[in-house]
Amino acid sequence: MSPATFVSSLWRLNRWIPVLLALLLVADLGSYLYLARVINPGLYARERTFIELQQRARQARRTELAARNPRQVFRKGQKDLEQFLARVPGQDELSALVGDLFAMARKAGLDIKAVDYRPKPLPEQGLIEYALSFSVAGEYGQVKRFIYLIEKSERLVVVDQLNLDRGRKDEGTVRLSIRMTTYFRRGEA
């Protein structure tokens, strides 16, 4: 069937369909021309301006960093390190940390059976690094809440690894195995 025959048969069946299609085609063409001729040039100009301003900001940051005196940078690093070390608790706080983990688990509706911890002295820094690992099992929402509580804790911990395993299908539980690292100052036990 040729296009002319198709249009004439549509015209005979219902005259509104070809008129509506023609109006839609004209509206589509008008929208495209408006977008291409009016909107896009302004948009491209704004995008170029934005990219140029980003480049200027990056260059200003690089210039500012290069202009700093190495002694100032060193002093700032020392000050930051002192502030960090002031936040590191004494070794006697290990049991309080473990207690906090148990409390967070209870708050989430979970139960920690045991916490395995391995100390590693860092004599140069005057610290002891503790690798903690434990597992909990419960519903997904409980496990998710427990992870949230750990993240929002004031304690200085680094979550190194999280493993989620699905429990038995009939139980609908998940098992979370977590490994974290924390630091304590030496000699305050």
Written overview of the protein:
The chain has 189 residues and is of the alpha+beta class. It is built from 5 helices and 4 strands; from the N terminus they run ααααββαββ. It has helices at residues 3-13, 16-67, 70-87, 94-107, 140-152, and strands at residues 116-122, 127-138, 157-166, 174-185. It has a 4-stranded antiparallel sheet. The N and C termini lie far apart (93 Å).
What class do helices, strands and sheet pairing give? alpha+beta
The CATH homologous superfamily name of the largest domain equals Ribosomal protein S6/Translation elongation factor EF1B
Largest sheet: 4 strands, antiparallel
CATH structural fold name of the largest domain: Alpha-Beta Plaits
Which labels suit this protein?
189 residues; alpha+beta; Alpha-Beta Plaits; 2 domains; four-stranded antiparallel β-sheet; flat; membrane
Question: What is the topological layout?
Answer:
Blueprint: H1 3-13, H2 16-67, H3 70-87, H4 94-107, E1 116-122, E2 127-138, H5 140-152, E3 157-166, E4 174-185
Antiparallel strand pairs: 1-2, 2-4, 3-4
Short description:
With 189 residues, the protein is α+β, with helices and mostly antiparallel strands. It contains 5 helices and 4 strands, in the order ααααββαββ. It has helices spanning 3-13, 16-67, 70-87, 94-107, 140-152; strands at 116-122, 127-138, 157-166, 174-185.
